[in-house]
């Protein structure tokens, strides 16, 4: 049984099953005041009635902050510019959302003079690490309460029963018990029948993307424009970051773009199966990567690619506020100065295909690359280059 040493706690509150039952559990077991904090990072309808629900569950107040602009500017864009993709598949939608939420949670704890912070992450997953490493980096004096590591609830079925006993309304049912995380970047699905990696996902599970089979038979084209690595316009119309991403989510989702079914390696050492819908993010990653191929030299592309692997691990493993990530960001920012131009993509039946690219900083020269006649490249020069480049191989043949 927890010690009753906390007077006030700030809970990272989503209004989902876990955090809904945590409010009365904290009051019952710690005897403390519970302040709920909810970050608006693009959950859409999940925010409806959130404050009322938190108060009905026993919270003294519910603070909601609109962090969508900060989310895209300070978390999504640096990760995209680094080319970070976890295990070459996952675009890190939950991973970089947690440190943002935790940072503001810590700020509110200071403002409210709370002694503790709490989260609804389980003891099996990655989110507990992401929340708590942020707490430790920014406010190590705060007590951390992780109910899933303390209480007698052992499953989502137990949590549903607890919610029923305490008359807490929740949207999850025993029949549709997926664990979901939604924000402006993606929607993730775990649990239920997905726990058997052989099972195909139910089509009704998907919420932001059309199945490729049901997508329009006519492709859609979109031109994404970048300035110094930042997306600024679609089809020539300038848009703010949030509006741009929302538009790409709608367009990409309509054409079935951005669905991923993967088995990933959790930080705690187990494998888990997740389904991700990331339509707008998939389009942006594809466009940004192609523009970089046009304007960056080979050595920089290779160096950035090596950093991308490590950057993805840092983000996935909750080390957002680490010195190393800051150092990587400094390098990545320096590579983005010339990442300016337009990329045209064709969206069709689940695919986002690049069909055109242009930039005032393009390193591509048609007069050099052409298979036709040219006057700028002497093909005979290649003979000496090959002889020198292959010298080490020639030397090896003498000792074989």
Task: Please provide a written account of the structure.
- The N and C termini lie far apart (72 Å).
- By secondary structure, the chain is of the alpha/beta class.
- A hairpin with a 4-residue loop joins strand 6 (179-182) and strand 7.
- The longest helix is centred in the C-terminal third of the chain and has 19 residues, at 298-316.
- The protein contains 13 helices and 14 strands.
- The mean pLDDT is 93.
- The chain folds into two domains: 8-76 and 93-175, Rossmann fold, CATH 3.40.50; 186-296 and 338-358, Argininosuccinate synthetase, chain A, domain 2 (Alpha-Beta Complex).
Residues in β-strands, percent: 15-25%
**What is the terminal-to-terminal distance?**
72 Å
User: What count of domains describes the coordinates?
Assistant: 2
CATH fold-level name of the largest domain: Rossmann fold
The tally of beta strands, per DSSP, is: 14
CATH architecture call of the largest domain: 3-Layer(aba) Sandwich
Query: How many alpha or pi helices?
Result: 13
Indicate the radius of gyration in whole angstroms.
25 Å
- Name the structural class: alpha/beta
Q: Which regions are unreliable across 5 or more consecutive residues at pLDDT < 50? A: none
Succession of helices and strands: EHEHEHHEHEHEEEEEHEEHHHEEHHH
Give the CATH level 1 class of the largest domain.
Alpha Beta
* Biggest sheet, spatial arrangement of strands: 3-2-1-4-5
Look at the structure and give the mean pLDDT.
Answer: 93
Helix content: 25-40%
Oligomeric state of this protein: single chain
Main sheet overview: 5 strands, parallel
Q: Which geometry do the CA atoms define?
A: elongated
CATH superfamily heading of the largest domain: HUPs
